[in-house]
Design goal:
The chain has 485 residues and is mostly helical. It is built from 21 helices and 3 strands.
């Protein structure tokens, strides 16, 4: 039963990941933004640039550097880019299986890994997309594989702490608040032979690999990046976001809580895992604070999945079924109900998500863009905004042909919260027609988009003048079934 539950949940996640991989587009506008900005940087333009604050993302350089790897083989980042999240999440699940096997037998290890896969599905496409959630999930999983060891000799401990710092530094290169996720792994060393110098090793590794991308790669202005982060720190915070993260964290520890409640003797687990368990609580509280920022939300709890899986495997490892023969049956029944609840919520959600991605309109739009790009060669051309917002998710297909990306709607929404608006330089570039051709959804009002942030954002993130200036400066030259040029 345990093996069947674990394999079924893992298989469901795998089939969803494959379906998402072959979808015609992406599920989220931030994912479309990461894809577009990765291509811009890959094409030789700066990623963090003080001269272009409306195009400077809040994600760190490691995410974009990781996306550049598969761009060496294919420019269709809307398809191959999803491999980043899928591969990262797959290896993270393998890491959970490895750590679980140190504590329990194969059947229980598969059960724990299956629950982690079911939890991943509950977050939809976030961990298997171009975004950085899958990478953070992997980094936390690797940190637990690294730190959950019985070797306590000084040389091994020093190396492990340095590598933990390396992993944390890379994670900060994805999301600057990432150190929160590594508190439980670091706490695993408390109670063993601990030295202050280990923290120095970890800090050295973190700083080295946090700074490395800015030294190795061109187009990364650290001042522009830090300026964007500083402005984002003032974004409004929502109680609903904090509560969402808290609820997700509580749900993730339900199997652990159920096992400990049914357990006759909890002292052995507490002796081994009290510090990581307390660190998990601190991490969750900090996440509720930092994740309450508008635009954040429940998906910030994804990297906690390896931690809760590890602690649960530890509880299963000290389970004593011989004390009361009814306890294993009770526990399995409770866990089975949790699995069914998770899958009952996750499967319809991910099914609907993949159906939307594969809409016939999107596939027709991709083909139409290819036709337009061929017809308008060698003119410079960009995909604009208006009407169906999801059509703008395809803008990386245009950028992949070497064209510029003037405005990014996702970055603009964040900039709008900071009080930044489309300035005279952008308006002048439209007046002078620096871009020869614009592709706009047919019959749509150009450059009109309400902020996702509701009352905290603007009715139109492009401002009151850009659409008017565009209509004054450009005129239609061709009309297709989905787009106009």
């Amino acid at each position: 039963m345990r093996v069947a539950l674990g394999l079924f949940a893992t298989s469901c996640w795998f089939f969803f990941a494959v379906a998402y991989l072959f979808g015609a587009t992406v599920a989220d506008h931030a994912e479309a933004s990461v894809a577009a900005l990765s291509l811009i940087w890959h094409n030789g333009q700066p990623l963090y640039d003080s001269a272009q604050p409306l195009r400077t993302p809040l994600y760190g350089p490691v995410l974009f550097a990781a996306n550049r790897i598969h761009l060496l083989f294919s420019s269709d980042i809307l398809s191959t880019g999803k491999l980043l999240g899928i591969v990262a999440s797959s290896f993270a699940l393998i890491g959970i299986l490895v750590v679980s096997r140190r504590r329990v037998g194969l059947a229980d290890s598969i059960l724990v890994t299956g629950f982690a896969a079911a939890a991943l599905m509950a977050f939809g496409s976030y961990p298997i997309s171009v975004r950085g959630d899958g990478l953070l999930f992997l980094f936390v999983s690797l940190s637990i594989v690294l730190m959950d060891s019985n070797r306590t000799d000084s040389r091994a401990m020093g190396l492990r702490w340095f590598l933990l710092g390396v992993i944390a530094g890379l994670a900060m290169g994805v999301k600057v608040t990432a150190p929160i996720y590594f508190l439980p792994a670091a706490a695993a060393a408390i109670g063993t032979e601990f030295r202050i110098r280990y923290l120095i090793y970890a800090g050295s590794g973190a700083l080295l690999f946090l700074a490395a991308p800015f030294v190795v790669f061109d187009g990364l202005n650290p001042e522009a990046y830090l300026s964007a982060l500083g402005q984002a720190a003032d974004h409004p915070r929502l109680i609903s976001n904090a509560l969402g993260i808290l609820v997700c964290g509580v749900i993730l520890v339900l199997p652990l809580m159920a096992t400990l409640l049914i357990q006759a003797d909890r002292e052995e687990w507490w002796a081994r895992f009290k510090w990581p368990g307390l660190a998990l609580g601190i991490s969750l509280m900090l996440l509720c604070v930092f994740g309450s920022k508008i635009g954040a939300g429940e998906h910030h709890a994804i990297p906690l999945i390896p931690v809760t899986s590890w602690l649960w495997a530890g509880a299963l490892g000290v389970f004593r079924p011989d004390v009361d023969s009814a306890r294993p049956r009770i526990l399995l029944s409770v866990i089975s109900l949790m699995f069914l609840a998770f899958l009952g919520f996750s499967i319809p959600k991910v099914h609907g998500e993949t159906q939307t991605l594969d809409a016939e309109t999107i596939r027709e739009a991709r083909q139409e863009l290819r036709t337009i790009l061929a017809e308008e060669y060698p003119h410079s051309i960009s995909l604009g905004y208006g009407g169906d917002y999801k059509l703008s998710y395809l803008r990386s297909l245009v950028i992949a042909e070497g064209h510029d990306h003037t405005l990014d709607s996702s970055v603009l929404m964040d900039a709008d919260l900071q009080g930044l608006a489309v300035g005279s330089d952008v308006l002048d570039s439209f007046r002078s027609c620096e871009v020869d051709r614009w592709i706009i959804p047919r019959d749509a009002v150009p450059f009109e988009r309400t902020s996702f942030y509701g009352e905290y954002g603007s009715p139109n993130i492009f401002g009151p003048d850009l659409g008017r200036v565009f209509l004054e400066s450009y005129e239609p030259i061709s009309r297709h079934s989905i787009f106009s040029v």
